[in-house]
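User: Design a sequence. Structure:
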């Protein structure tokens, strides 16, 4: 069982930066693949970035701007977001799932979710 708590969201102007953090509980945190998803108003929740065994994945629209990382000693995963755009506005969720899931890039591949943190980018 893993509990996840996000922090770091807020209001930022276009071109600015934010760093999201996701603190996990439990001794098995390092055994999970971790991901960040986001959900904009009226849209489906979609994956933004994923990290597993040191390899990373990024959705095309955030490549070169966002960086996912994890610190297993602190049970924390991060999402550094640079060059933010108004279209990045959404509720951001961190999630934990099985490394070997066949659904690693969809919600189905994740068993544990945080409560979400709002990111708003003004133009």
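Assistant: Done.
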């Amino acid at each position: 069982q893993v509990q996840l708590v996000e922090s770091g969201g807020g209001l930022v102007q276009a071109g600015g930066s934010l760093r999201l953090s996701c603190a996990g509980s439990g001794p098995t945190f390092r055994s999970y693949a971790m991901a960040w998803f986001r959900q904009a108003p009226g849209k489906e929740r979609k994956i933004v970035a994923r990290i597993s065994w040191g390899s990373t994945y990024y959705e095309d629209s955030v490549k070169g701007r966002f960086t996912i990382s994890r610190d297993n000693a602190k049970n924390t995963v991060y999402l550094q977001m640079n060059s933010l755009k108004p279209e990045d506005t959404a509720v951001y969720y961190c999630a934990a799932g099985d490394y070997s899931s066949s659904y690693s890039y969809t919600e189905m591949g994740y068993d544990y979710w945080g409560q979400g943190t709002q990111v708003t980018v003004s133009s």
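The CA atoms of residues 26 and 49 lie 22 Å apart. The first strand starts at residue 4 and ends at 7.
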